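Task card 7
Instruction: Convert sequence to structure tokens.
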Amino acid sequence: MQPQQNSLWSKDFTLFWLTNFLMAVGFYFLLPTIPFYAVKVLGADESQVGYIIGIYTLSALAIRPLAGYALDSMGRRKIYLWAMAVFGLLIGTYYFATSLIILLVLRLIHGFSWGVTTTGGGTIVADILPPQRRGEGVGYFGLSMNLAMAIGPGIGLWLMNDNRYAMLFFGSMIMVAMAFLLANLITYPKVPLTKKSLSWEAFFEKKVAPASIVMFFTTLVYGGVITFITLYSQAIGIKNGGLFFLSYSIALALVRPLAGKLLDRRGPGLVVTLGFISMITGFVLLSASQGLYSFMAAAIFMGFGYGAVWPTLQTMVINMVEPHRRGVANSTLFSALDLGIAGGSVLLGWLANFTSMKTMYLISAIIIIIPMLYFFLYVAKDYKAKMLLLKDEHHD
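Output:
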């Protein structure tokens, strides 16, 4: 039985990986195309496009604490499948949006379903994976999202070509429908349900707050990347800004499994050190970019950095709590992620306006020093202490 227990690519993990990949592809069909739809069909201007992106992120953030509570108290399978069904069905409604206000309302509701689905995914994968290989498994699971990020935007833009928006939305719905079918084939591990009443503790896991603060600062500067990288690429004479995300995704995909293995064997310290150094290098290179090669090199260094730090933080969060608290722990971490991206988009946008995009990216490199120092001065020690305490409790 032991070899089977330690097997990473079990039937359920493989199905769950494919489920997450297909759903993410459907999501990334829409990421670069919704702004075009808003501008060309609904007459939105550039500032209003920011609201379309921001409201989605903020609604996902708002729902995550409730999603974590529901996953822990009502069961993973039920909540996850319902959220995915709603997520898929709402995509088709975009085509019938006749005004920007209607689109914003749809984005608000759609963000709720995305927040629940992604919180569920991060929680269920921890239930399925063998504890001894959790870091490696979380790394591989994250690849499903990274590969979707690499191919989804390009396919979405191709589907939308010549204003074929019906084709775009229908194609995205098909991806999510296929994901939903696979999700129904998974045997979800039985986890004891928590019966906590509605309280602060039911929505927030204080044990993982330090790791979540690190996540917040790393995504704060990432918000500036996803919001402004296309504009920045044009400003420095690069026509296809999408090459940044392609290079970033490939680097992310390469480093995730390696970082996961290193985490399982050596702990988080070395992985996070290398990750932060790589991030800082990437932002410095980006601020100094004059052409394609330095631009893509910056993307690769950032991919290595985020591919090392993000799954490490997620695995740490999962490891620090009992199984019946994984839902709320994941929601706490992902809320920090969403808050960082949303806040970074606004803060760094203001900074870019006040200075320049080059200066903004250089300051981003400096900002990264904050979570790096905090991790080594406090979070690493705090994690080690909590893991020892959890181990002692289990022995008792």
